[in-house]
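Hey,

Quick one before I head out. I ran the complex with flavin-adenine dinucleotide overnight. Inputs first:
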Amino acid sequence: MELRADIAVIGGGFGGALMAMVARQQGHSVFIIEKGSHPRFAIGESSTPLSNLFLQQIAEIFDLPQLLPFRRWGQWQRDYPDIGCGLKRGFSFFHHKKGQSYSDQPARSQQLLVAASPSDELADTHWYRKDFDQHLISEAQSLGVEYFDQTELIDFHENSEHVLLVGKRQSEIINFRVGFVVDASGPRGCLYRLLHLSERKLPLMPMTSGLFAHFENVGSWKSEDGVPYPVEDAAVHHVFEGGWVWILKFNNGITSAGVAATKEKAESLGLIDGKEGWNRLLKHFPSLASQFSEAAVQNDFVFVRDLSFGISELVGNRWAILPPAAGFIDPLLSTGFSLTLQAIMRLAQLLPEPSDADLLLYQRQTFKELDQVSYLVGALYSNMDDFEVFTALTQLYFVAVSYAETTYRLGNPDLANSFLLCDHPDFGESTREICELATCSNNREVVLNKILKTIEPFNISGLADPLKRNWYPVVLEELFRSATKLGSTKSEIREMLLREEML
Ligand SMILES: Cc1cc2nc3c(=O)[nH]c(=O)nc-3n(C[C@H](O)[C@H](O)[C@H](O)COP(=O)(O)OP(=O)(O)OC[C@H]3O[C@@H](n4cnc5c(N)ncnc54)[C@H](O)[C@@H]3O)c2cc1C
């Protein structure tokens, strides 16, 4: 059987489904080819203000209003109560010492709470991917995308006119003859294997492994009085030397939890053993052990031996690879969705016949942005047991993304047109230098001072203020005070906040 379309998207996760929807809205005929079937477990769940802005932009640019409710907790709950999700008001970090119960002494020195939204209504979410991805596939199909599940691609042939993908569905062979292929098949995915692409080194990033599962009956982590938001309505990070644990609570009683750690740490804990590895980890951290004392794993644990990776070619004449199939650093800063959604917009603008030059530009930009995440997360891994430096380094992330989000919303995207401001001549370069210093030297005072100097011109949310003692609520007045940094006037900021229903 031979089937023809303009575009084939490999992989039916949210990335593939959105890529297909966008291409369809541009008038192209589109296949999605997925090796599994929905509903299915998928990891990668926590959204951010920037990723929700990108989702909103996709909805607006490509006339997909059906995506808009998913950019905020409140509207999602009203419009799609049956699609699971979690409330994410911010990023919570707690620093643990091996063998000791969590203690925040001196007060608030071992925690960092950064609010991302001023209310539950406007908050970000954790996507319960089993429901969410299945919903998006149905949306894609209702736009006319043809969806082939349980289809394993076994061969790839390219000539100047088209690509031929050879698929196997049960015992049937299907030839997909298409003009262009977008690979959204996730880490070390389809084209990586079929085209034997090589891997590349990620700057400063150690080799890492991951172990994760969905749980029921996870206990709570107590919020202190006066916190900027209930600390569990967030992406919760428990950081320790060599690794960290994430905990994301959904509104259906399920909790996503897992650990990412350097190879050495993962080996010393025996994470490869799944449940036993997880239990060994909990034994080292008594406060986490008590939170999980009644917890039950829903399905099996998933162990990923090589979590961080990058590949060295992201484009060919008639194909391109989306993050995270192109490379994945770590979930520590929830950067995966933003990179994926941004890449979808970039590729969509090039379809159906991208020029070589455009594809190379896409590749260059994707490498640069993945590398910037790698610098930052690599430096964070090196400082997981020095929480003051760790906290300061995270400010490079929070300042960059809050600045980018706000300048986009104010209609000044040129002020921040690369992820984490990696192309910015001051901020981008200085961030890389700081990360190298923080990884390769012991000069923590220089690192701390350089961070303050680097973030100051972009710090529009009052971050890194010692008087706030690691608790950062959303304070809208900070934006008005930062009007000059944002290239805007106070009245433009006010209009933007009204538009975004924040006033
Ligand atoms: C442990 C972990 C935690 C993460 N946490 C976060 C987070 O909190 N926030 C965040 O922003 N990002 C996170 N990420 C990154 C996030 O997972 C990705 O950005 C996101 O899943 C991308 O979605 P996707 O649809 O492109 O790919 P995926 O979710 O990987 O889906 C790929 C699809 O392709 C299919 N497929 C695979 N191979 C083939 C093949 N050969 N042929 C056909 N189909 C194939 C798979 O079955 C799957 O359905 C995390 C990643 C990991 C590993």
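The chain has three domains: 2-82+128-200+314-354, 88-126+206-304, 384-499.

Talk tomorrow,
K.
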